[in-house]
Structures are given as structure tokens and as C-alpha cells.
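Data availability excerpt. The first of two example chains:
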Amino acid sequence: MSIRTEDSKFTSWILEVDRRLLWAVLALVLVGAIFVVSAGSVSAERINQPWYYFLVKSIPFYVIGLITLFVASMLKKKWVLGISALNICVGLALLAWTCVAPYKIKGSARFVHTPITNISPSDIMKPGFVILTAWFLYKMHSAYGDNMFLSRDAWRFRKLSWWTYLAIFVPVLLIMFLHPDVGTAFLYTITFGGMTFVAGLPWLIVIGLVGFGLVAGLVAFMIMPHVHARFMSFFTGQGDRYQVTQSIQSIQHGGLLGSGDDAFVKESLPDAHTDFIYAAIVEDFGAIVACVLLCALVYVLKRLTTDAMTSRNPFVFYATGGAAILFGTQVCINLATTLHLMPPKGMTLPFISYGGSSFIGFCLLFGMILALVREDKWK
């Protein structure tokens, strides 16, 4: 009887889950592994390792991430909320640890060093951030209605108010800024702003928040040498432009069909398998393959948007919309950096770049979104 019950649950999951979104994510993971081998081979040679070195290092993350994706997609809403709360608590603890025992990589102390791998707390806690922000917006709308942003009661010091959320959100941003990890802080801010705008944030407040963001960026530019150097390099063409220059040359050398074995520019491209993997893809496989990959990323974004727009529950709408905003913004930042449309931010291309924390974080996020969408449509 129990076997039949389990079979029935699995069959129900197969029928109810958004298979198009799931298959699209799995396809990205597969091609991502291929691209990590291609782009990471030269990075491995620099440290006297075989060409498959980064693929082997990625296997545990692929296994953990895919198990997380499938298990999370079978959860009920209460478990999604519980795991999101745990995810935020773990992320905050790790983020606090980076302040106590900072471990710097390329000038940023945003990592927790372990004997196995370096953990990025800001990547780990993205799922909890999106889900709990969506739940908070849902509860605020239930309590205060369409006036939840301007109601005096919503701004009083009580258990459910904007001060409750900001008391957690603002310190997290400050820690990210001080590391410095301005790119991730910017990503979180855009995601939060997009989610609140979708929830009905008045235009007047939107303009105020944009102004605040510009002021915060100006302050970061003035007091943080790391930020100052990157912006000056971007706008004046002076300073350290090696990464960006090599990225553009890789893209130019790849052309439409790629350079294949003749792809030599990426050999001198730092982070070819992580932040600048898209440039390495263009050089190896050509602009046509790179455009197909871009279409696949857009398709995932479209599926998230469709699931959000067809949802019946406001919480699912906010959560799925938030995942779409986070995913789309990170893709845009990574590509804009690669194409020299904005200063380097040290951000991975979701499901494609090498990086365990980012990969597992996105697998958990998409798994929980699949679970919420499935329950919303079929329960």
C-alpha cells in the first residue's frame, strides 16, 4: 500500500509540476557543464591541473543542487516557508561570520572559507530573501490592503510593519557594501524594489528610492577605493581594464561560428569559467550558439513570468515574480559586464558559470518556486 501511495505521489508530481520550466533549467545545467569544461580548461592549465579539473570540482555541487531542486519542488507551502526561514538564518549567520573572520578574494571579504570550498553567504540566502519578502508583502497586503505602503499603521513599531522588514534588510545591505560587495547589494535592492513595485508601490516612493540609490552609489564611489577604481576605469578608460579588454577581444575573436581549438584569447582572460564565461562561450562556440543560450535564459524568464501572471494566490504571484526579477537582473548584470556596458560586478551567469554557492542557491530557489506554482494550480 505504501509503495502504491509513493508511486501515486510521484505520478502526481510529474503531472502537476511545470515541466517546461523544469526541463529548461535542466538543459541550462547540462550545457553549463559543457561550457565550464570548455572555459575552465585554460584556467585549470594555469594552476597545473588537467583540463577537466573544474568539472570534477563541480560534480558535488551539481549533485547537491539537482537533488535540492527536485526535493524542493515536491514541498508543500508550509515547508517552503520553513526552509526559507532556515535559509535566511544560515545566510545571516555566515554573513556575520565574514565580519568576524573575513576571507578576501580579489579584495572582497564576502566569502566563508572552508577546507572543501569557499561559501558565498549572499548567494546562499537568495532563495530565502525572495520567498520571505514575498510572504511579507502578502501578509502586509492582507493586513493593510492596497494602502499598505502609505498606511500609518503599516509604519508603526509592531510585529507586522515595514520596520520589521527593514530591521533585517538594511543591515544585510550595509554588510554587503562594507565587504565590499556592491554588485550583490545592488542586485538585492533591485529585486526588493521590483517586488514592491509589482505589489503596488506608488510612483512617488519609486522616484524617492531611485534618488536614494543614486546618493548611496555616489557615497560608495567617494569612500570606497574599490568602487571608485572600477567606475573611473569604466567611464574614463583609464586604470585596470585588463578583464574587460580581454572579454571584448574574446567575443571579437569568436565571430559567428567560434574559434574552436584556435580560441587563444580566453587563455589570458581571468575568470573565464566564472564571471566572464559568456565571453569564453562566444570565442569557443561563436555568436550563434551564444544567442541560442541567451534565448534559453530568456525562455526561463518567460516561464517564471507566465507562472506569476497565471497564479491564483498573491503570495505565489509575489514569489514567482521576485524569482523572475532576481534571475533576470543577475543575467543582465553578468552580460552587461561581459560586454562592457557596466563596471565589473563579480556576478555569475545563473546555472552556467562555475560556482557552488550560486548554483545551489538558484536550484533551491527554482525548486521552491516549482513547488509553490504546482500547489497553486492543482490544490
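And the second chain:
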Amino acid sequence: MQPESSKEFLTELVKIPSVNQYITQKPCPEAPVGNYIKETALSFGLQARFLEVPGCAPNLLVTKEFNSRNPWIIFASHMDTVSADGMDFDPFCGAEKDGRILGRGACDDKGCIAASLWALKELQPENTCKNNIALLFTVDEEQQRSGALAFCQTYLSALGFKPSGIIVAEPTSLKPIVAHAGIGHFSVNVKGKSAHASTPFKGRSAIKDMIKVIDVLEKDYIGKLAATDPLCGKAQCSINMINGGRQINAVPDECVIHVDRRVMPGEKTEEVIPEVEKVLEKLKKSDPLISFTVSPQCRDNPLHQDLNHPFIKSVLNSLTKQGLDAAPRGAAFATDAGAFSAAGIPCVVIGPGEAGMCHTANESMGINELEQGVKVFKALMRDI
């Protein structure tokens, strides 16, 4: 059944679970959401087609060509969510409370999906838009960026048009982000030698060796990060997960840490692993028997671009005309914009909802925020 409002559309989106497949280990979680969005878009008279993504559910591309001579702009948002564990309410209830829609993904990023599609629905009858509009709904944004990367690597050159820019729809309280950090996730795996706990001297504790690794990382790598960006702040790195030992009465033969490195614009994500390996080499010099490997897990480009690009200036001008705060901002988090920007497409990250609401136990989207998002997206589609 066709939804009657953006609120109803968001409610139905939230009711469809789409927790990222690398979290649940269940394949293609976004497929039911994509099917529902496609069905809704077609009912509005829009064009819609799936774009295959290796190892994942497909992306969805919805288009409206107002005039063959018009430039194209893309509004991109993602269909997957983070884990729904530990939420304060049924994560897929889509309930309305105190003027807000509750549920995992209500803010990140299904509110932006609802706002962008509803804006295009309302704009469609006008036939005065100076842009042609494409809505790109990506998969696997929360982990590997598979959807955005597949779009850039496989489909961008085959679209039949080159977008003049991309609005990456993410919750920013409708304030424009023009630069953000990238990500260099990595793990360090320490190997030891197992032994019975009654004779620990016959083994080598991987946990004890990991303590040495962490000490060097904290002092000589994390503590010495110096890269800064005027919009995004300072480079960050944190050790956020650790696993070691198999049972209480055995010396552990393996210990693994997982590390989150936030890469500033101007830094190169591919240099993270060599930098870490160089810092840890001193351990091998002082203790030749220590055994560890450093492995990349996820690499995501920072958003780093020319802020004088006509597309970016046009977006900011439109926001100013709408009476909104158009001051360009940076962010410490990462989005699909990193992949799009690396492919040479200018991007502005903007959307309804508060960034601080993302990934929380009480995630929700204000109905008034959603409705304002529809108005702002509609104006951007028309004006930029």
C-alpha cells in the first residue's frame, strides 16, 4: 500500500530490519528495504532499478529526468543500520512517541531515505526543476562501504550521465558538512605458546605480550598523532576491542586487538598500516621472540575537496536562501562521501536528524525534523 505521508513512509521503513550483514552474519539484510523503497518509488511514477553489489544486496537507483538537457545531481543515503541489540524499546516498532518515530535506523539513515524520496515525489509534478534527480540508496555503509564503492567502480561510468555533485543524506541537523575524517581500522594479532596453567613457564602468554604491544601503541603511536584539519579537528586512534585466552587453566596462545584510526583530510589511509608496523618494530628489536601481525580491516577515504567548487558553493547558497545556517563544517565521523569524493565527485553531507542520535539505545527521528528535511531537500533539488 502506498504511504500517505513521509511520516508513514519512515514508520514502515523502520519496521523492516536491515542490520548490517557483517554484524549479523546474515546475507543481504537490505534487500527487503530496497524492495519496499522500489515499490514505493514506482507507485509515485518514478524510474527505479537495482544495481548489483558483489557479496551484498543490490543498491537501488531511483531517477527522475525533468529535461534531457538538465544536469544531474544525486541524493545518496544508506539502507543498512548498526546493531539493534540493547535498545530501550523494540528496535523495529516504528512507534510514535512525543512527536518522534522510534526505532533503529529512524535517524541513521532511514529518515533521510524518507525525506529524499518524499521531496522528489512532491517536486515531480512541477516540471520546472533545473536539475535531473537521482536517488541512490546504498548497502553496507556501516562497515565496508561496499555499496558506494561498487557504484563508483562499476556503475558511475555507465549511468549515461555524470552527476554534477552528490548530496550525501546523513543526519546533520540540516547543517552542511564539506569535510570529514576517514577510517583506517586494523587489528594486531599476537601469537604465544599454550601451556597448562600449573606450568606457565613452559608457555608464552600472548596476553602478556599484547600488554607490551598496547603500551608501545599508546605511547609511540596514538600519543604522537599530530595531524589536524581546521574543520575536522585532530587525528584520533583508540583500541576498542580485545580477545584473548581460551580457558582459565591454560596459558593463552593468541590475543587480538581491534583498533579504530580516524584519518584527517590530507592524510592517506593506506599509510596507516606501514606507520603502525614501523612503530612496533622496536618491540621485535628488544624481544626477538615476540610474534605479532598487523592486518588492515577497513579503509575509508576522508572527505577532502575544493571548497570553492561550484556545486558546493551552490548548495551553501541555497541553504542561505532558505534561511538556514550555511556555514561549512567538518566532522570526525565518516560517510559514503569519502568514496564519492575519491571518484572525483563533489559532495555535501546534509540531512534531517541529529548526529548524536545515531547508533544510540533510544534512536529516533523528530517528525518535524523529517518534514523540514523534505522541504530542504526539495529546495536543493530545485535550486542547485
